[in-house]
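Review form for a predicted model. The reviewer records the input and the model, then writes brief findings.
Reviewer: anonymous (R2)
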Amino acid sequence: MTSAYAAAGVDIEAGDRAVDLMKAHVAATRRPEVLGGLGGFAGFFDASALARYEHPVLATSTDGVGTKVAIAQALDVHDTIGWDLIGMLVDDLVVTGAEPLFVTDYIACGRVVPERIAAIVKGIAEACAAAGAALLGGETAEHPGLLHPDEYDVAGATTGVVEKSRILGPQRVRGGDVVLGLASSGLHSNGYSLVRKVLLTDAGWALERHVDDFGKTLGEELLTPTRVYAKDILALIEACEVHAISHITGGGLVNNLVRVLPEGIAVTLDRASWTPAPIFRTVQAVGGISQPDIEATLNMGVGMAVVLPAESVDAATAVLTARGIDSWVLGEAREASGEGASVVLRGTHTAG
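Model under review:
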């Protein structure tokens, strides 16, 4: 006999099945500090582990994936979108110098399809493992009537810890510092409302369309997972002196970098120091978008901007190269007494 709740569109049995399917993925993220397992009302993390810090400071970040989920839904590919969620969460956290400890997630859907939910959590768990964070818990909510049966959205939060004396940020930045760019894996998870409008709605491109410049279909390019830099950034901080780091997300390079600069510091970046990947040039050309407008929306191939002393550049580059991260000198900072913090992009990109 069908329950009243099931008749209203909520399938409790499907939810239970989804939990069973995701258990192995969640278990793979387990850290020694995690107590208990899935199924409780809250997750437990043994805070006594923080005793090794002289003055531990907790850091937290919350975010979602945004309209990139529409691409995953259209292609019926759901095991990569979790990388985008974790990239947005832990990489916002790690730029402060904090080590991500654990993540909780939230999936809202129109209908629980256990295999689909498990695929989403699989990606989340894989990315958590890559970041060194435990997937401590989460929630899957079925919202019939609010979301269509095959629609879903994902969000989450992460908590980390950093020694107070080692917090990175504007207070460390000085004139003469160098800005190092770290390559993105593509669009990451920002600007998809613009990208979808330009390429899918206005230009009418199909996701199955093969694009020679990409070497793959449009859908495959748009679904490229966000790079998770957490362990790379922590290794960088451990190996050399770093003053500040900016995660280049919505708002682009200039708007995000200025957030980690103090007043009286002006940064000049050189576009000629790198060539944006074809996806960025394609969106700009097809949409007829101005340079300032595209740079204020997309990361343009720069996933992280690291501000550090000039004498740290060689060591930093060596660490990043060994970890498979392309990096290059983007520009430098100078004293600008009496002025607010500023970032300026000059020159033109080298041809790709």
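Findings: The two ends are 63 Å apart (CA to CA).
Further findings: The CA atoms of residues 68 and 192 lie 6 Å apart.
Recommendation: see findings above.
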